[in-house]
Design brief:
- The protein has 5 helices and 23 strands.
- The termini are close together.
- Strand 10 and strand 11 form a beta hairpin.
Length: 399
């Protein structure tokens, strides 16, 4: 028996950005034999593997239905994006189609291990920038696995799968001033010193993380006047519209300017999963989500009885496990704040409290109306080191 152990080099995190380098340490071990088996010949106790390879697979699993109601496989979208070769038929090993795979890297050929001997191999691969992030939606799922495949002579191929989470690379606007790193502007003006080692130019990942830090730190308050056919309900202030995973969405509501009483409100962070009907190449000027089917998933929620309040605030934490906004040829994922305002024009709610009694009896029955409003927000990824997702060890025994 040979024991295969795989462990990611990045400590306490199995999360990577598109374009980052994934490093995995793979160990092949021949366990020690018992005492009664030591008397056998060396040829009998040596364990032999013919070959072993490692590569990264991106899988796509969809439950899209056509107009007839049957499940349709997005074969046109998947087949045109498959690149590289595979060391085994991965689509039969795991549920889902292979959307993209890296070229298999050969770890060894003809490996022989004596009892108690171990051999370690380092697997390094750069994630593609043009692949979708890890996403587990209702109709579409994207997920990544490192596949370590090996085979004995005359036996079937066996594989060890190491799951990893991939976050999308932040969309960088080259015309934005936040793309410039702080040190670059001063280096050109500084005198040339031959004794100082030249600094390496920042990588694309460093640029992306710098841009992410700056774009999500901007505070540009936006004010929205909330009203219906009865009159003004209040004014909502959102301090910024771009957030990263793990942040809190903070907003304030001012009812002092309203002419319609707001009895209660609820704000929900929602994810919109919209499956495209056609590829964007057919009509690039048209809205990609028009005529498409979509699903809504609720996450954090703020609910409050606000009758009698002049001002209040809402705080919605963004979970670290959700997927930021992204879009592919198959699906568009975006985020929004879903507001529900319960209003009333009941005259009894406008009764002033007497300064002598300081008592007010709420009416037992009031007529209400519910108003719904959706406000789009942008969710960006965060630095992978800030997401505590343990990689752990993965093992496979080959007999």
């Amino acid at each position: 028996m040979i024991e295969i152990t795989a462990k990611l080099i990045r400590d306490q995190s199995a999360v990577f950005l598109c374009g980052e380098v994934v490093e995995c340490l793979i160990t092949f071990t021949n366990p020690k034999l018992s005492e009664h088996a030591i008397s056998q010949s060396n040829n009998d106790i040596l364990e032999n593997l013919a070959w072993a390879t490692a590569q990264i697979h991106c899988y796509c699993n969809s439950t899209i239905q056509d107009r007839a109601g049957a499940t349709a496989e997005p074969s046109n979208t998947i087949n045109k994006n498959v690149s590289g070769s595979t060391s085994l038929n991965s689509s039969n090993q795991l549920k889902g189609e292979v959307l993209k795979s890296s070229d298999p890297k050969i770890l060894f050929c003809d490996l022989r291990l004596s009892p108690g001997e171990s051999r370690q191999f380092m697997f390094r691969e750069t994630l593609s920038v043009n692949t979708p992030p890890t996403y587990r939606g209702i109709m579409v799922k994207y997920y990544y696995k490192i596949t370590v495949a090996t085979q004995r002579v005359g036996s079937t191929v066996q594989a060890l799968y190491i799951p990893i989470r991939v976050l999308p690379l932040p969309p960088i606007n080259c015309s934005d001033e936040t793309i410039t790193l702080n040190d670059e502007s001063n280096e050109d003006l500084a005198p040339n010193n031959p004794f100082l080692e030249k600094k390496k130019s920042p990588s694309k990942i460093e640029y992306a993380l710098h841009y992410l830090q700056n774009i999500t730190a901007r505070r540009r308050p936006n004010f929205y006047l909330i009203s219906n056919k009865r009159g003004k309900v209040g004014r909502f202030c959102l301090f910024k519209s771009i957030y990263k995973l793990g942040e809190d969405i903070v907003g304030t509501l001012d009812f002092s300017c309203g002419t319609v009483k707001c009895v209660q409100l609820s704000v929900t962070l929602q994810c919109e999963e919209i499956v495209r009907k056609k590829l964007p190449e057919t009509n690039p000027d048209k809205d990609p989500t028009s005529g498409s089917t979509g699903r809504i998933t609720n996450f954090t929620k703020h609910h409050e009885i606000c009758l009698g309040l002049l001002q209040t605030q809402m705080i919605l934490p963004i979970p670290l496990y959700v997927t930021p906004s992204f879009e592919t040829d198959l699906v568009v994922v975006r985020w929004r704040l879903h507001f529900q305002f319960v209003t009333s024009i009941n005259e009894e709610l406008n009764t002033q409290i007497s300064s002598e009694t300081l008592e007010w009896q709420a009416p037992t029955d009031i007529s209400i109306e519910t108003m719904i409003w959706n406000l789009p927000v942008s969710l960006y990824p965060t630095a992978p080191v800030q997401i505590p997702q343990a990689g752990g060890k993965f093992m496979l025994n080959i007999k």
